[in-house]
Structures are given as C-alpha cells and as structure tokens.
Amino acid sequence: MSDSTGTAFRVAEKFLSINGEGLCAGKPAAFIRFTGCNLRCSYCDTRWANDHDCPYEILTIGDIVGYVKFTHAHCVTLTGGEPLLREGIPELCAALMHEDGLRTEIETNGSVSIAELAELRKSGKGELSFTLDYKLPSSGMEKYMLTDNYRYLEKTDSVKFVCGSRDDLKRAAEIIAEYSLDKRCSTIFSPVFGRTEPKDIVDFMIENELMDSRFQLQIHKFVWAPEMRGV
Ligand code: SF4
Predict the structure, then answer these.
(1) Does pLDDT of 167 surpass 90?
(2) What number does the ligand 1 atom closest to the CA of 109 have?
(3) Model pTM greater than 0.85?
(4) How large is the greatest C-alpha to C-alpha distance in the chain, in angstroms?
(5) Which residues contact 16 (CB under 8 A, 6 or more apart)?
(6) Strand partners, 2
(7) Shortest-distance Cα residue to atom 1 of ligand 1
(8) Structural domains in the chain?
(9) How close is the Cα of 177 to the center of ligand 1, in Å?
(10) Among residues 36, 100, 37, 109, which one has the least CA distance to residue 65?
(11) In what helix (H) or strand (E) does residue 160 lie, and over which residues does it extend?
C-alpha cells in the first residue's frame, strides 16, 4: 500500500503510555500497534488487533514520525499483532532512527526474520532494539519460532519468555542454555497474566540459578484494567 509520501500502514492504535515490559519497562513511550498477526497464541491479549475486521487508520511513515515527535517521547515501540509482517517497516525504522534522541524498539513474536532490520544498526545512526518473544509450549506456537534470529541479537535486545506452566519454565531454561542467550542479550521471564503465579517463576529462576535473567510483570496490567486498550 503506497501514497505520495511512500509506504503506508494499517495502524490499529497509537498512544502515549509507559512501556509495560522489555528493557525500557516503566519509561514513557509512544506506541504504534499494527494490525494482523501470523500466530494464534492461546493467551493472546491483543486478538482484537489481529481480526480481519479490526478498526484501523492508514498512516504514512511521515504521519508516524510526526505523531511520535508530537508526543515528545524518547522511546517508540512498534508492536502488534506482528509488526514485522508489514511491508515498509525497515523504511519506517530508518526514518525513526534519524530522529535525534529517539530509541526505537520492536516487539516481535519471534517467528519472523529480523535480519534486514538488524542490518540497519550498522549505519551507526539512532538506536534500534528488539524484544523477541520465544513462544513456549503452552502458547501452542513454539513450532514457529525462528531461532536463526539469535545470531543478530545484541546486549540492548531481549528475548522474552511468557510462561504459562512449569513445562514452559523448563523449556525457557533449555532455550537460554542451548543458544547462550544470557550471554548475548537480556532474557526476561514473565507470567501469562492470571494463569501463572509470579512467585513460581521467581522460585524457578532461583532454583535453577538463572542469575542473568530477569523477572518482569506487565506493568500496564496493574496500572490500568488488564483488558484496557490504548494504554
Ligand atoms: S504473537 Fe502476540 S499478537 Fe500474535 S497471537 Fe501471539 S500474543 Fe497475540
């Protein structure tokens, strides 16, 4: 989809809030949520943004950069759905990276290659980081995980494990060890909201000496009602 200012995107919502998770958790950020996802996780909390009839607005790269500048946020998070499925994301990221003092973060579900975007970091201009999910067994989507992405990870990136069961925790520990993820980037453990006891995750991390990993709750679900949109 294109117009006179280049690629345009279907955006389900845009808003200014705090980063609820990832390395910049707790910091104010502008959010751009794109429509559509290629996965169907059992615990998905943004299913509405993946439906074919989800409401959206069409925004160009210029519109998105303009909105982010308007918010005065120092961080922008591109999320979904799955943002990396959208044509033109590398061009959008390049434009955002040209904004002085702006950190661009991409939240991706771990099933789509980040190779082209990781290449953008070589320009040395701007900050771009990835929060990559590893979908564990209880999500029902583990078979789609693209572990080849791990070769592109840097210290400013994170791999996030949303854990819904004891088996998920064990699998997360296996994946961290198999790919030496805690040496490459941050590794984050988080509960499936309402399904896993946070304490069980902390106990597991301590029992298994996951000393370089971190535990995180989705802050926005405690500040606002868990099902609330636009926060
Ligand atoms: S990847 Fe994210 S948006 Fe897609 S189905 Fe899973 S939880 Fe929902």
Answers:
(1) yes
(2) 1
(3) yes
(4) 57
(5) 28, 29, 30, 31, 71, 73
(6) 7
(7) 109
(8) 2-223 (3.20.20.70)
(9) 25
(10) 100
(11) strand 158-163
